[in-house]
Amino acid sequence: MRVALLRRSAPDPTHLTVVHEGTSFRVAMRRRASARRITLRVSSATGEVVLTLPERTAVSTAQLFADAHAGWIAARVAKVPARVALEPGAMVPLRGVPHRILHWSVTSGATVATRDGTDAPIIAVACQPPHVGRRVRDFLEAEARLDLREAVTRHARALGRAPRRLTVRDTRSRWGSCSAQGHLNFSWRLILAPSFVLDYLAAHEVAHLAEMNHSDRFWSLLERLYPRVDEAERWLKRHGTELHRYG
C-alpha cells in the first residue's frame, strides 16, 4: 500500500529586501485572504514599507513586484520625516513649543518642563542615562492625559453628555476615536501639537457621543463646541505626520 506524503511548504519570510541605488529597504510581507492583487504601502508616520499579497501568490512573484517598485519605495521613504530620539539635547515640541531635553542629574527625580539659565524652554530629566527616553515619554503621556481630561470634561459639560472612559495610547491610524459604548481614545502625541489642536480633537470625539457619524448634524454640533475646526484640520493636514517622528 502506497502512503501519500504531503510536503509542507516553507513558511513565508517576514520581510523582503529591496535594493535601490545601493540602499537596502526592508519590506514587511503580509498575506491577506481578501487581497486580490499585490499592493505596496509606505507609512507616512514611520516609514515602514508593507507589501500585501493574496494567499496563493508566490513569494518569488512578490519579490519581483517589490524589486520593480524599488524607485517608488525609495522616493516615498525619503519623504518621511527623520526620527528624533528622546535623548539629551534633542528638541521636542511640547504644546507646540520646542523644548530641549536636559539630563541634569543621575539621581532619580521628577521630569518637569521648565526653563534654563537663558530662559529657553527645556524638559529637565533626572535619572540614570539609559532611562532618559522612557522618562521623557512617560512625562509627555502624563501631560497629554492631563490636557485631554480637562478638555474632554469641558466639552462634555457643554454637550450635556459624559464619556464612560478616556484612554491615551500611541495610536497610528487616527488621533482619536469614540466607541459606541462612549469610550474615548486619543494619541499621546497630541501633546506635541499646539494646544488648540488637542482641544479640537477632544471636542471632535466628545461630539461623537451625540452623533456617531460625520453627518452635517455632527459638524454643526462640533462647530458649536469648538469654532476653530478648519484651523485645526489645516494644521493636522500640514504637520500631523511630523508628530510621529518623536520617540
Automatic annotation (TrEMBL):
<dbReference type="InterPro" id="IPR002725">
    <property type="entry name" value="YgjP-like_metallopeptidase"/>
</dbReference>
<dbReference type="Pfam" id="PF01863">
    <property type="entry name" value="YgjP-like"/>
</dbReference>
<dbReference type="InterPro" id="IPR053136">
    <property type="entry name" value="UTP_pyrophosphatase-like"/>
</dbReference>
<protein>
    <recommendedName>
        <fullName>YgjP-like metallopeptidase domain-containing protein</fullName>
    </recommendedName>
</protein>
<feature type="domain" description="YgjP-like metallopeptidase">
    <location>
        <begin position="36"/>
        <end position="239"/>
    </location>
</feature>
